Amino acid sequence: PCAGLRNLLRALSSSVRGCSLHNHLQPMCLCSKINPQKSHVPDCSGGTWARRTLPPGSILPWRCFSCKEGTKIPSKRKEESSIITSELLYKNLLKSEQENWNDVSARYKALTKGIKAKLEELHNKYTFSPGSPRIRFGENVYFEENGCIFLSKADDGEENVDILFSTEDLGFSDAFIQRIRISPDQRYMAVSLKSENSEEATCVIMKLGCSPTVEKIIPNVFSFEWATSDVLYYTTQKNLKSQNVFMTTFANQKATKLVYTEEDARFFVDIYCTKDRRFLTINSNSKTTSEVWLVDCRHPLKLPALVQARTKGVIYHIEHRNDELYILTTYGEPAEYKLMKAPVATSGMENWQLVYALEKKTKLVDLEVFSDHCIMFLKNAGRLYLKVISFLSHSIWSIKLPTWACEFELESHPEHTTSTCYFQLTSPVHPPKRFAYSFKENNLIEQAVQEVPIITNCHTTRLLAKSKDETLVPITVFHNTNSKELRRKPLLVHVYGAYGIDLNMSFKEEKLMLIEEGWILAYCHVRGGGELGLGWHRDGCQHNKLKGLHDLKACITLLHELGFSQPKYTALAAASAGGVLAGALCNTDPELIRAVVLQAPFVDVLNTMMETHLPLTIEEQEEWGNPLADEKSMKYIKSYCPYQNIKPQCYPSVFITAYENDQRIPLTGVLQYVQKLRKAALDHASRTSEKGNWIPNVILDVQAKGSHCESSWEDSLNE
């Protein structure tokens, strides 16, 4: 089974623009790949849920099964000349930017060569692999390395191994192994393969034995789990949407049937297996509302059973233990996560009983249910800690974690009866350290897997900035302990503030390099993100988006007031939806910063949210609002949208990386943003003759390869 809450929520990662540009963590059972994968784990909150006349989700009896795609409704015809003009304009803009990039980047070759050498040195020094994750079934151990899946005996180590699967041998040399599921009797193995240039994955089912063979290949798969040894459930993905659940059998009568279809375009469907393998859950989630159906693994051919019909604003996820469902939900007041339980037979909301409620302004990062315990990974005011609940004694323990820790990743625990929980702690400037919590001993143990140099020259400071409405906004600051005159040091500010997602604060070699060179790093945990719980997200989405902008301004202002650098040495970094706040600040308060670095930025909110044919527009109305149906939303989005508010003034320099085949952030919008920004900066320069007047650099690097969500170490290094 997958590890923890992050996989219960994983479906939402494919239905936001943020995807994974700001979190390396991808908790899966044996999810290693040739190069480390970037991913993020969203929270879910905010917005409203509109009524529908049609049933939002449908369980389909077998007799209604149909594999045919729905009839496509032809789009309105456009004049052929306007299409040609639009395409020609796009091609000309793209060509112009590529030529400009080739000219500009050539000037920095010597500089980038030196930076690359430093990063490679740090990567080799601080990044280590404790070995690929292992899946143990009795005496058999499965593991993956370099695109191959191996089988060994527990007592043999890796001396005598059998190769079960090779991406290269099967013609998938450009793909990495994303996910592995072994059937309960170990007769079959399902493997998903994903290319770095594609959003979709391919699932390969292998029949194991003396000579493993390919049994079936399923394209465009998002999630999958074995219900029994020969029954596999999976969801498909198309245009960033996952709305159909299929069941395929590998017994004597092989068949594939459509089990569930989701009719509401705002909902995304995935499959999860409970820790004890008693149920598969079909999870249908929007940003604000959930619905779960149970597949009984003892009777996988029966129709799934509904746990609780979707209720406006209520999110819930399911685990199972001893004939009881453990329900992680926002039901009740306050609208933050709570752990509740109910009998399987009477699982309706009226029977949910409270087990534990989170404290105010606490973020639930992850959760894992074991046979006798439940462990919660929590964050409060930037500090990480654990809550351990004993199902036997009904006692609750709070475990403090090292103060330097900013992120954790729960490791996979296939055995739900285990007495030890393993996880890793990290920060932007601290390489991952492995820890173990023993349920029996009730203590925390640091695991010395491999000697990693300890970072001793970095100081961590946590601050609170007072925003426009008096709300206190957390800031995490890192700087070299040996640095003198911090006011004269360069400062790199990070921001995101959308979808209830935390800023990525996992270890990165480039952050440590900057610290060693005297930079100050600041992470602004503004509203719209999830650092202080679901309410923190609600306070920064839809008609509250400007609060995130006010928070960012307050954070940068406080940093300067406290002597952390000054505007002329300050840069701002953001990715994806973080580009909304970064771009908005450039328009409202350009004097606070000297440079901006944006990766696949969302800078044209208004036009994008009015294009309902784009893959994510409908789902994201709960985050940004619906400008087509609501004039108030249109005016509000227009008031902060970066593209809409560009004006002639002195802008900071801007460097943007975009991807030609990005399905989440249309390249057209980025190209138009760059053109408009350049024109505004030039107009301002031509109108003023102030002494020292300068024209900012506005540089765009369009990557032909790569996508919004995946990036290998080599590609990241080149960027």
UniProtKB/TrEMBL annotation:
Residue ranges of domain Peptidase S9A N-terminal in the record: 165-443
Top EC group: hydrolase
Keyword field contains Secreted: no
UniProt main location, coarse: cytoplasm
Family according to the record: Belongs to the peptidase S9A family.
Function: Serine peptidase whose precise substrate specificity remains unclear. Does not cleave peptides after a arginine or lysine residue. Regulates trans-Golgi network morphology and sorting by regulating the membrane binding of the AP-1 complex. May play a role in the regulation of synaptic vesicle exocytosis.
Protein name: Prolyl endopeptidase
Organism name: Trogon melanurus
GN (gene name): Prepl
